[in-house]
Amino acid sequence: MTFLLEIVRLGLTNLRLHLLRSFLTALGIILGVAAVIAMVAMGEGSKQEALKQIESLGARNIIIRSQKPAESTQQQSGQQRSFVLKYGITRDDLAVIQANFPEADAIVPLKEIGAQVIRGDRQLVSQAFGTTPDLLRVANLTVRQGGRYLAEQDLEDRAMVAVIGADVARALFPWDDPIGRTFRIDDKAFTVVGVLAPVGLAGGRGAILIGRDLNLDVHIPLTTARAVFSDVVMKRQSGSFQATEVQVSEVYLSVPDRDHVLADAGRAERIMKVRHPDAGDVSMIVPYELLASARRSAMTWNIVLGAIAGISLLVGGIGIMNIMLATVTERTREIGVRRALGATRRHIVWQFLVETGVLSTMGGILGVGLGIAAAEGLELVVPLLPKMPLVGQFFNADTTFPTQVTLWSIVVAFCVAAATGLIFGIYPARKAAQQDPIVALRHD
Length: 444
Description:
- By secondary structure, the chain is α+β, with helices and mostly antiparallel strands.
- The protein has helices at about 1-15, 20-55, 90-100, 135-140, 150-155, 165-170, 205-210, 220-230, 260-275, 285-330, 330-340, 345-380, 405-435, 435-440; strands at about 60-65, 75, 80, 85, 105-115, 115-120, 120-125, 130, 160-165, 180-185, 190-195, 220, 230-235, 240-245, 250-255, 280-285.
- The protein is about 50% helix and about 15% strand.
- Strand 10 (about 180-185) and strand 11 (about 190-195) form a beta hairpin.
- The two termini are about 35 Å apart.
């Protein structure tokens, strides 16, 4: 025990005598550990954000969507040409889905309606849908306090009520409380009974998957949509005109058990292929499948990032070995004196290993602190960049950079740093121990 304490004391004394050199020697390890932790934190933060967006679509949901076919033909009747494109899920398809999935937790249809959403001189391109009250639960939506979502009574009464998305409320009612006020979908007036809480899918992966920003949604009772609006929707946008006939825009199929999602998705896909063999007008989104794929991709990305950052640790280890080799030459006479006073080769090896171990361990500790600070700092600083005078023009106002420091990255980076220092310190230590004490004493 006394031997070990003496060896540690000598090692620490030698490092303290050359503080700047010791710090510069450990700098490679410090930066390497910090790089591993920061890069893994960036990858993990992006992964968690993507998984959160996908998971918000509902891990037990299967979303069947009508989509415009890749190729469409214009029908001609007499002298008049019809530009109405008919495609997608029909009410008969919906009935077949309901018949084949009696065990489903919920089957929620959505029917797109209207060309414009209007209030006074404010208007938006319509993203209005007729649906049922179950959509609130199935799509993981919430309503702001003071309002409500659609109710079964609204369906029975074919009520002219609507629940609007957060961005619709902001655009149509910038200064007023929307609850109880009216707006129009085309020429039909509706009363706002609720406002959806902001959905964090805007501009994210979830919005891309679902095909629209849910914050711009307007929901009315499905029975009202069928009674008041036609299946034909005509929209004018950016100088173009489009008329489509879609009976059912989307169907949310919520299965009771997450373990049966993939099997039920396959069954639903086969049903739709039989009913739409060549049309290519129906697509399917399975968030659970996307979730598993995103997790695999994110893990691969983390490994790649960690491996790239790990090169810094290798460089740091080489730096320690180079400095320790130079130290061996510089301290040759000291080694000879210690050998002459009775120190064995084992003592010399341990002395140099203690020094490299302390360098790599302290470097690892400092690197962990620097890596955590860098990861947390990025998350705080990046949202401020759009407000900066010179670089702000290159960033969107809602730019974020989520990071998440993981325990495993800290443990792995620190252990690899400590092991790297020791491994690269073995050769200089052995070289120092193998010197002839007589020759070492004669060294100037």
